Amino acid sequence: MTAVATLAGGGRAVPAWSLRVAFLLVGAALVATRPLDPATVAAGGLVVLAAAVPWAGVAWAAIAVFGLDQLGDAASVGGWHPYVLLPGLVALHLLASQFAITPVSARFALAALRRPAVRAGVVTAAGEAALAVALWAQAGVHLGWSPAAVIAAAALLALAGLLFLRLLSRRR
User: Fold this and answer.
1) HEC string of the chain?
2) pLDDT, tens digit, for every residue of 117-160?
3) pTM (two decimals)
């Protein structure tokens, strides 16, 4: 479902350029959570360039640089950076995929983000759980109430809730 098709069906719409502003804000928030190193500066520059030139696929390069930079960090189970980075990268991807196909001068129907956002939420919840389990296993932590265990449990509960709501909506 495209933004134009959704707009024709009614609903609240915003200027399409606001997607780029949201992309810049999410990118700036991710840059702020990272240590200032050349990879972070490069990722920040790619975020700005992606907002200006969305058809060049630069957004996905920015996402890759953020992710690869995180791999270089010694992420611990107690660290919060990887748990913030994952949903941030998913949000960047979601916004970039929408503003890449929507002309800047158009209006964007917010309802067009609903289905992709729900899918992204399910994927992110599963990814957060997998990330927490991987970091937990990497650290060799025994079963206990570490931050990773709490995040993994919360992500699994969120995933189960989203799947339940999805199944419930199909029955109607």
Assistant:
1) CCHHHHHHCCCCEEECHHHHHHHHHHHHHHHHHCCCCHHHHHHHHHHHHHHHCHHHCHHHHHHHHHHHHHHHCCCCCCCCHHHHHHHHHHHHHHHHHHHCCCCCCCEEEHHHHHHHHHHHHHHHHHHHHHHHHHHHHHHCCCCCCCHHHHHHHHHHHHHHHHHHHHHHHHHC
2) 888 888 888 788 778 777 777 666 555 556 666 777 777 777 77
3) 0.75
